[in-house]
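Entry — protein

Goal — fold tokens:
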Amino acid sequence: MSHSENSANNSSQQNIDPEEIAKFEELASKWWDRNSEFKPLHDINPLRVGFIDRIARLAEKKVLDVGCGGGILSESMAQRGAEVMGIDMGAAPLKVAKLHGLESGVNVSYKQITVEELAAEQPESFDVVTCMEMLEHVPDPSSIVQSCAKLCKPGGTVFFSTLNRNPKSYLFAILGAEKVLKLVPDGTHDFKKFIRPSELGGWIRQSGLSSTEMCGMTYNPLTKTYSLTPNDVDVNYMIATEKPA
């Protein structure tokens, strides 16, 4: 085995946070309960899939959903006509995803594997790669970005979403969402792991991708609704990137 393969294997083994996985495993049974801790994910999902579909045109595309959890985004992309594979390192959420797929009749293939391992096995296999709300939960997000780029076919599209790191995002995502409004469980996020767009942009360029569009997502506590905000990426944001053809 070459040094690079060896280091890839090592990084894939290390680039998971057991505490983060345990957190989502514990909540697994609630993934598809729209009034549970996952309500925000259900609420933002139409915005996410709309953004992805507008840019990448999902119908008949081969799509990889990295950190798919219980399959909320995976299923909605499959409903738009994509052939979807979802990967995650949590056994319980994957079990929930598979069961929900049987109930809904939406066909998604799920696999428990790290993105680094899959990138070593199946490079350049997907037209579209999505990695949403995951980068802030791993020890080395730059390795995830690199592997997503490796998995994407030339000319394909890769999407990332995460949380910006600044005083406003601390106020909204930690104090507001976790402590005051109780939108997500206390301790869901670690502010130190939030990622500035400039940092993510650097990893994107290093991995040979180019950013094509960035968009924020904001929550209105009065109307209890989320909306896409092209000019406000202070808290939640999504980035669309392209791999050169």
The chain has nine helices and eight strands.
